[in-house]
Design a protein that fits this description.
With 105 residues, this protein is α+β, with helices and mostly antiparallel strands. Helices cover 29% and strands 26% of the residues.
Length: 105
């Protein structure tokens, strides 16, 4: 069975809210998203020098399009606690990636 990742690039709204953004992402958003059907784990990356996007990669089990629909539906229904510390311009970038190769010596 193919493995998929949902790759998300986002940013804090501004430099004053970085700590609050990180706290929300780690303590609220990740647990809420991973609790949804189709999402089994998440790994989050922050830029070393505060430049560039913050990246989260969600491991998907099953149909990746359905997993993204589950996230969208949960957000629309208010089941995801969002924050104004998340920049909306530019809109966070989402991309479904198929795992081509895993190499672990």
């Amino acid at each position: 069975m193919a493995k998929f990742i949902l790759h998300v690039e986002s940013r804090p709204a501004n430099e004053k809210v970085v700590d609050e953004f990180n706290r929300w992402y780690d303590e609220v958003h990740l647990p809420e998203v991973v609790a949804l059907d189709g999402i089994v784990a998440a790994t989050r990356f922050v830029p070393k020098e505060q430049e560039g996007p913050y990246i989260t990669q969600y491991e998907i089990e099953g149909d990746p399009e359905q997993a993204v629909k589950n996230i969208t539906a949960a957000a629309a229904a208010g089941r995801l606690n969002m924050t104004d510390t998340l920049a909306t311009k530019p809109v966070p970038r989402l991309q479904i990636l198929k795992v081509a190769t895993e190499y672990r010596p």
